[in-house]
């Protein structure tokens, strides 16, 4: 018979997998779009600066300045929120939680009941994964 603590831990792991995966996908999407935006805007700025139309030369210069300003703002946002770093951290945490879930399920397939000491070890491993993810998040926000 499965203990209440083990049942609770497995439920928490399943809920956490859903939330971490959702956050991981969010950070991946934002990281992709910020890098793509910076690249496209830099290319546009280069093209605008390379155009040589005497009639609208001042307008092109102003457009290039506005584009460069946008690149600066997006780069600052990207640096502050570190979406790529958070995507990697959440991906690592998700992999660690999957390893823990596998270890629990593998242990359950054995012929004897999981003892209290092993359940406590699983709980500590789970908490360590969450603590490490929280530490990465805190470090990334304290720049």
TrEMBL record:
Keywords: Membrane, Transmembrane, Transmembrane helix. The chain crosses the membrane at residues 30-53, 59-80. This is SLATT domain-containing protein. The lineage of its organism: Bacteria, Pseudomonadati, Bacteroidota, Flavobacteriia, Flavobacteriales.
């Amino acid at each position: 018979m499965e203990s209440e603590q083990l049942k609770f831990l497995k439920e928490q792991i399943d809920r956490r997998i859903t939330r971490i995966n959702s956050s991981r996908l969010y950070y991946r999407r934002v990281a992709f779009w910020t890098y793509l935006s910076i690249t496209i805007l830099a290319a546009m700025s280069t093209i605008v600066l390379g155009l040589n139309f005497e009639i609208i030369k001042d307008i092109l210069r102003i457009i290039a300045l506005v584009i460069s300003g946008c690149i600066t703002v997006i780069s600052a946002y990207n640096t502050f929120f570190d979406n790529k770093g958070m995507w990697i951290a959440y991906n690592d945490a998700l992999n660690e939680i999957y390893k823990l879930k596998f270890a629990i399920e593998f242990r359950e397939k054995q012929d004897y009941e999981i003892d209290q000491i092993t359940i406590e070890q699983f709980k500590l491993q789970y908490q360590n994964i969450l603590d490490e993810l929280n530490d990465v998040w805190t470090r990334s926000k304290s720049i």
